[in-house]
Write a structure and sequence with these properties.
globular; 18 strands; alpha/beta; 4-stranded parallel β-sheet; single chain; 2 domains; 16% strand; 465 residues; Aconitase, domain 3
């Protein structure tokens, strides 16, 4: 019987199938950060439980960590309490912990792949929706709730309903200035933020295979924004080259054995998906959002849609969103003045994103009125920025590299966009108040963010390439 990539990994991890109920699924890796784990640890402690397989659990703070002065105590009492609690819990339960200033610290969804902790064929969970990121490595990875975090800690298993499968194929070659972020925003604009609800998505096609590992991680990161349970890409030579030699990756004979298995991880030619969707790469341009959900996006040189043809409910929601953003239907955003630029997050905080940003700003200067936060996704990324000399290019253009963390993605730390201000952001969500109360977020790629940073207005990055 022909199987999809998802089927192969899922079936290899089934412990038992509850009759007319969920699947008991074995989990290879649990990642923990400071926001969704405290209650799970508290319940474990109250019940006198230990972690069943502590060597498979990795913990690090990222959401609450400041992106400056990390060698000093955290000023915000709530953030400090959460970070301190994770450190103590990891110690009490005998778990691997990468704290602030540890060279292995960073955003958990950046650190996992770059350290070789995330590997093809794995099942991976974390109390964080953007766990879908790790699917780029050819893994079944998805976010879970706090009670489920406790379940995995106690048993290394989880009860899950098997999702349906969808394949999204993007045929052809991507055009100039079009990145993985643009691909994701394009798909969301076409499919809406609920278009993949109930499905686990596999991305396929020439345009997907052409993406670097960093690009694939960005794409899978945003799967959740279409409502998908997760997203994944079949491992290939790009994956294997990325993993090889990384700290926690298999070595020697174990590498050869793992590689042989990983090469079987692809959907069979006659595998049947519950749903198939196709797009043409040539139709995708650099994108930007104009509303308050990631599906409200358009090509950067287009105009905001008009309400003609919308139902009354759709029209009300649409107009409410535009009112919050201070935009009008039919308006073009090119030339619109912006206030902040954020490069970073588990979406675009990798080395390739900093290379892209630097390629645009090299030899130019940051617009005087723009505040720019350039935040690496990990200490490893920060080291790469320095070793490649990107820090010099960025500093010469008037930018400062901050310390790793989630930063302005979700405003759970000091990096908050002030009310009413416009931020071109490489993060994943543009909800009302997501980057700070009253903040107005326009999601875009690192290239588009860089173009806005040096011109001070929304600019088609192709004009500066």
């Amino acid at each position: 019987m022909a199987n999809t990539l998802f089927d192969k990994i899922w079936d290899a991890h089934v412990v038992q199938q509850v009759e007319e109920g969920p699947t008991q699924l074995y989990i290879d890796r649990l990642y923990c950060h400071e926001v969704t784990s405290p209650q799970a640890f508290a319940d474990m402690r109250a019940r006198g439980l230990k972690c069943f397989r502590p060597e498979r659990i990795y913990c690090m703070p990222d959401h609450n960590t400041p992106t400056h002065d990390q060698d000093k105590p955290i000023a915000d009492p709530i953030s400090k309490a959460q970070v301190d609690a994770l450190a103590q819990n990891a110690k009490d339960f005998g778990l691997t912990y990468f704290g602030m200033m540890d060279k292995k610290n960073g955003i958990i969804h950046v650190v996992g792949p770059e350290r070789g902790l995330t590997l093809p064929g794995m099942t991976i969970v974390c109390g964080d929706s953007h766990t879908s990121t790790h699917g780029a490595m050819g893994a079944v990875a998805f976010g879970i709730g706090t009670s489920e975090v406790e379940m995995v800690m106690a048993s290394q298993c989880i009860l899950q309903t098997r999702p349906k499968t969808m394949r999204i194929t993007i045929d052809g070659k991507l055009g100039k200035g079009v990145t993985a972020k643009d691909v994701a925003l394009y798909m969301m604009a076409k499919m809406t933020t609920s278009g993949a609800t109930g499905y686990f998505v596999e991305y396929a096609g020439e345009a997907i295979r052409s993406l670097t590992m960093e690009g694939r991680l960005t794409l899978c990161n945003l799967s959740i924004e279409m409502g998908a349970r997760g997203g994944m890409i079949a491992p290939d030579e790009v994956t294997f080259e990325y993993v090889k030699g990384r700290e926690y990756a298999p070595k020697g004979e174990k590498w050869e054995k793992a590689l042989a298995y990983w090469k079987t991880l692809r959907s069979d030619d006659d595998a049947v998906f519950d749903k198939e969707v196709r797009f043409k790469a040539e139709d995708i341009q650099p994108m930007i959002t104009y509303g308050t959900n990631p599906g409200m996006g358009m090509a950067i040189n287009e105009a905001i849609p008009v309400t003609e043809g919308m139902s009354d409910v759709e029209k009300t929601s649409f107009e409410k969103s535009l009112n919050y953003m201070g935009f009008e239907a039919g308006q073009k955003l090119l030339g619109k003045k912006i206030d902040y630029v954020f490069l970073g997050a588990c979406t675009n905080g990798r080395i390739e994103d900093f290379r892209a940003f630097a390629s645009i700003v090299k030899g130019k200067k940051k617009a005087a009125h723009v505040t720019a936060w350039l935040v690496p996704g990990s200490w490893m990324v920060k080291e790469q920025i320095q070793s490649e000399g990107l820090d010099k290019i960025l500093e010469d253009a008037g930018f400062e590299i901050r310390q790793p963390g989630c930063s302005a993605c979700l405003a759970m730390n000091d990096d908050k966009i002030p009310s009413g201000k416009y931020a071109v952001s490489t993060s994943n969500r543009n909800f009302e108040g997501r980057q700070g109360p009253g903040s107005r977020t326009l999601l875009a790629s690192p290239l588009t963010a860089a173009a806005a940073a040096v011109t001070g207005v929304i600019t088609d990055p192709r004009e500066l390439m």
